[in-house]
Prior knowledge:
The structure is a single chain. The chain is an alpha+beta fold. The model has no long low-confidence stretch (mean pLDDT 94).
Amino acid sequence: MGFTRFVEVGRVALINYGPDAGKLCTIIDMIDNNRVLVDGPREKTGIHRQVMTTKRLSLTDFVAKIPRNAKEKKIVAAWEDQGILAAWESTSWAKKLATKKRRASLSDFDRFKVMIAKKQKTEIVTKKLTEISA
């Protein structure tokens, strides 16, 4: 089982560092071994065309079929034709990120309600287990 996620034109990546962390982008050209040219597309992900180091990117399994240095219009069309955004949102990676973001936005009272709900769930489960084992 070999490595399958290569830095290539059309590869969709997740930005993992910097002001755009947590957003998707598409690699549209490779400058050298350490830097790539990425584009959002802006209307879908909010990322404009920029140079980024590969250390700031986490490669996904998705590859958009676009030519090298494609214009944003072609990138948007490729994302829509291949359903990349919907496919990304259905992955466990994206779901974990959404859960993490949701938990980070909870207020103190929301965290308290979650704690109480977990305690109630645990109590119900232990009662059922004792009934089954008895």
